[in-house]
Amino acid sequence: MRAFVWFLASFVAVGLAQAQQHGTLRGGEAARTTTRPDTVTTLVLRDEGLTRIPDVVYRFPNLQELNVAGNTIRTIPRRLQRLDSLHTLNLSKNQLAGKRLRIRRNRTLRTLYLQDNDLTHLRGRYPRLRGLEALFLNRNALTALPQNVGRMRALQELHLNDNQLADLRQLPLRALGSHLRSLNVVRNGIRELPAELTLLSHLQALSLANNELSEVCPVVGQLDSLRSLILYHNHLTEFPPCVLELDRLRELDVYYNQIAQVPPDIDRLQHLEVLYLSHNRLPYLPESITHLPRLQKLYLHHNQLVDLPSGLERLHHLEVLHLQHNLFDFFPPGILRLHALRDLDVSHNDITEFPSALLHLSALDCLYLFHNPIDRTQPWFPPFEETLRQLHRRHVRIGFESEK
Fold first, then answer.
1. Is residue 13 pLDDT above 50, yes or no?
2. 45, part of any domain
């Protein structure tokens, strides 16, 4: 009996230790029974069936992060401001919709998650959370934001994807212009960009993916602080020429459009590190694309390419090259001079022969060659098969059909 009691006590102790690790406490039971509330900095009460924020949260004087997502909480209590170390509050997937949403003034909160709450509006007197840096309002039903949101002078990130903000003029653009750094308005049914968007003069990241845009110029070209521009899955039929004005741009995504030509002066984007051109209608690339000295990742799959431009060896930092689902009928030899290449995918083409010199790509980690019409009876194949064996011994991940 003593052994059983000892075992049960040990089991409970282990369970509590697992619930509280590295300052993180998970679950209501652990929150109520811990003997060291002063050591807890993160409290997770997710999916606990809560209808309100429980009083137990006030046991933790040094609480920095509170996660009460996935409950049915309807109000945010005034007492929450007593947690004067709290910097992150996750209230996603609750029932904060409508006029019930009211957040008191708070100077310590830095990140606030309010996504998935069926919010249709925020109160006109939306309080100024003066220290708030990131606000997540994703997956609600918002058609506008009140001007007071723009008065949060510390706000740098605003996440609004999956709402009903088809008219971006319903955002407090002028008020946000002095401080906002990142704006996410993915899937909002946006058809055009208003000139007022240029008021966001400090914007560094703009995500406009999955909207209805057929044109983004000249507005985008005037956001000259942009580092990241995401235009994924819109209705662009040409590469937006004004993008070339963004000389600080590091990431550009035009996946899933109908672009048939990359401009010959693409090399104006001298700071570009990641370029997504996949799922377009490109039959060729200009030679100038090899004059992007910082390019690290180039995604070109699902186009109509038959060759690559000369001069690939100039891309000294290129690590990822995806060419699957194109029309190559030979292996582009310039690839063998990309000595930083880690990830190469040329699957789903019409390539009939692969070079054994792939072995000399010393940085290679992943090589995908699936679904190409190779003839294993040809003299080139036995040496190449040995190349694959040696790459395998180097722990390179290889995608290649075994002989049936």
1. no
2. no
SS (H, E, C) the chain: CHHHHHHHHHHHHHHHHHHEECCEEECHHHHHHCCCHHHCCEEECCCCCCCCCCHHHHHCCCCCEEECCCCCCCCCCHHHHHCCCCCEEECCCCCCCHHHCCCCCCCCCCEEECCCCCCCCCCCCCCCCCCCCEEECCCCCCCCCCHHHHHCCCCCEEECCCCCCCCHHHCCHHHHCCCCCEEECCCCCCCCCCHHHHHCCCCCEEECCCCCCCCCCCCHHHCCCCCEEECCCCCCCCCCHHHHHCCCCCEEECCCCCCCCCCCCHHHCCCCCEEECCCCCCCCCCHHHHHCCCCCEEECCCCCCCCCCCCHHHCCCCCEEECCCCCCCCCCHHHHHCCCCCEEECCCCCCCCCCHHHHHCCCCCEEECCCCCCCCCCCCHHHHHHHHHHHHHCCCEEECCCCC
Within a domain: 128: no
What are the pLDDT digits (tens) for 249-282? 999 999 999 999 999 999 999 999 999 999 999 9
Instruction: Give the pLDDT confidence of 196-236 residue by residue, as tens digits.
Output: 999 999 999 999 999 999 999 999 999 999 999 999 999 99
Tally of structural domains, the chain: 1
Strands 20-21 and 24-26: antiparallel
Residue 296: pLDDT over 90: yes
Structure tokens at 44: 């997770």
Contact at 8 Å (CB) between 20 and 33?
no
pTM of the entire predicted model: 0.91
Q: What is the reported pLDDT for 177?
A: 94
Tell me if 301 is assigned to some domain: yes
**Structural domain boundaries enclosing 300:** 269-403
Q: Residue 43: what are its φ and ψ, rounded to 5°?
A: -120, 125
Report, in angstroms and rounded to the nearest whole number, the Rg of the chain calculated over CA atoms. Answer: 27
CATH classification of the domain holding 282:
3.80.10.10
Q: 263 in a domain, yes or no?
A: no
Query: Which of 6-10, 49-53, 242-246 bottoms out in mean pLDDT, i.e. has the lowest?
Result: 6-10
Across-strand partners of 111? 88, 134
